[in-house]
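Cast an eye over this sequence plus tokens and walk me through the fold:

***
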Amino acid sequence: MVTRSAAIEHVSRWHTEEDADRFRARGWWSDRCLFEIVDEWAERTGDKLAVTDGTYEWTYAQLRDTSLRAAQVLHDLGVRPGDAVTVQIPSSALIPALHSAVNRLGAVFVPVPEMWRASEVEAVVRGSRASVLLVPAGAGFDHLAMAREIQAGLPHLGCVMSLTGADSFMDRVAVARPDLAAIAALRPSPDEVLSVICSSGTTGVPKLSAFSSNNVLTNMSQVADAIGMGQDDVMGGIAPANTGSTGYLYGVLGPLVVGATAHVLGRWSARAAADLLSGRGCTVAVAIPTQIVMLMDPALGDHDYTPLRAFLNGGAALPVSVATTAEERMGCAVLGIYGASESAFPTCGRHDDPPDKRQTTVGRVVPGQELRLVDGDGIDVPPGESGEVLWRGPNSSFGFLNQPELDASAFDGSGFFHSADLGVLDEDGYLLIVGRLKDMILRGGLNIYPAEVEGLLYEMPKVADAAVVGVPDDRLGERACAVVVLADRFEALEVAEVSAFLEAAGLARFKHPEFVVAVAELPRAASAKLDKSRIRDMARQLIHDL
């Protein structure tokens, strides 16, 4: 359990009272909690469609009433202010309803992906000290049995329950009669830690990034401004809403905060995504780059995307060729957002950015955020030179919940998040991500940034997916290896072909991959980012076997 005083103290580590006052004066922070903002839309436009997922279809009034009933059920189960509630859930309209319900009680909402299993879920429940664990039903796996095994080893986990099905949580929600006065009396401060975004850790232990209502509200406001989203918009939430921030915060919660409608894609397929975007008349959309690549498959046939004007992508880099093709086929602006689950985002493309900036950069610094690019000694680098990307601001997290060792490694004493990403600011203030400190390949004293090479490999007709990693070399220290997924109908890709293509593209010779190996699929994390650690292991083994 996190006491309410401790929750506010946790927040105050990064921001002074003067910071908070300034954030409120600029309108980035509010004295209202997120659920209160959505409730206000229910009062103003209660009959308007709020969120759908193919199973649930709620108006704003229905969403509010569902969350109030769910809050009552959670309270009956013993949830109190400061408790954490872990919810393992598919991509679903249930997520915002449960988020609001948990927060109404002053409790901390901790969602985790449906595909996680005992190791990851147990680590989250233990780390967050959750008192309740809700799990999905069916889906070919006995989540409830897993939850009961987890519960047996954790005394603080008082209740486990299936979300849906017979004798489930939602069954109880359907007949609950909320005590509105009692629930209102538990209203938290919007400055308390009220939600956690879970992401996979490099050690295997999930990271629990802590956010207040105001952090999340700033996220939503900044994204809405960047893509020009208002209450008349229709969001196509293509990115998974149950993993990280891209799918949920930007694809579901953002539209609800501005009074728009959000259509959540429950189960991914490229055809289902295309049908949703065209059939629902979506005006804005959010996806991860892999999904946009798959949406460009000609086999999907023709779809009318006429209302679509802005397509936001995040979680990884989108190849320039794909962004260009998507804009041509869909008739919309494709915008990149850059950040991390651990601490939101500092930059985002805008709907009115020039095409070349939209397609090659991740935008400019959003209002309120402070961005630094520093060298290995922590000294700021000038425009045009690469440095590690650091940021802080009103949308940033407040570190990690109950994980002080991660705080120390990711944040400095001033609250700047150290991303380990390498970026370059151009003369117009647009940020280009060129690689990661850990991914950088050092070949004979020369730096190779994989992202630069990967972006060019995507331009090759034979390449459907690509990653560039370093492999050990006794003489040079490291050499570059391209691990590729071949496009349909191609059976091989030779080093000489790759080198000739990169030479024609103007890439310096020392950056050319000296090994090329083909695989059926590149391993990715739940957030869709390439799992470079596993890819390096694959490359080394495949080269060894040659």
In short: The chain has 19 helices and 24 strands.
